[in-house]
Design a protein that fits this description.
By secondary structure, this protein is α+β, with helices and mostly antiparallel strands. The protein has one domain: RNA-binding S4 domain (Structural Genomics Hypothetical 15.5 Kd Protein In mrcA-pckA Intergenic Region, Chain A, Roll).
């Protein structure tokens, strides 16, 4: 995903929907509220947490997890 999108930030439930880990925003909200949403191996306790560039690791990646077995890695790309 482009770095520009994360400068202002994206709500975590939207990321779960955009990556296909959840079929809709409401499904993503339920998943997070029930304790099944993780960002970088840490449980997300609020669905309206905003993910920004500062949340990415040194390799410019972030790992999303829905439940026990569904993972998605997001890598930042610089727009040329």
């Amino acid at each position: 995903m482009e770095r520009q999108k994360f400068i202002e930030g994206i709500p975590v439930f939207k990321l779960f929907e955009m990556t296909g880990l959840c079929g809709s925003s409401s499904e993503a909200r339920r998943l997070i509220e029930q304790g099944g949403g993780y960002v970088n191996k840490e449980r997300v306790d609020r669905f309206d947490v905003v993910i920004k560039v500062s949340d990415f690791n040194e390799e410019a990646e972030i790992l999303l997890r829905a439940g026990k077995k569904k993972f998605h890695r997001i890598k930042l790309l610089d727009k040329k």
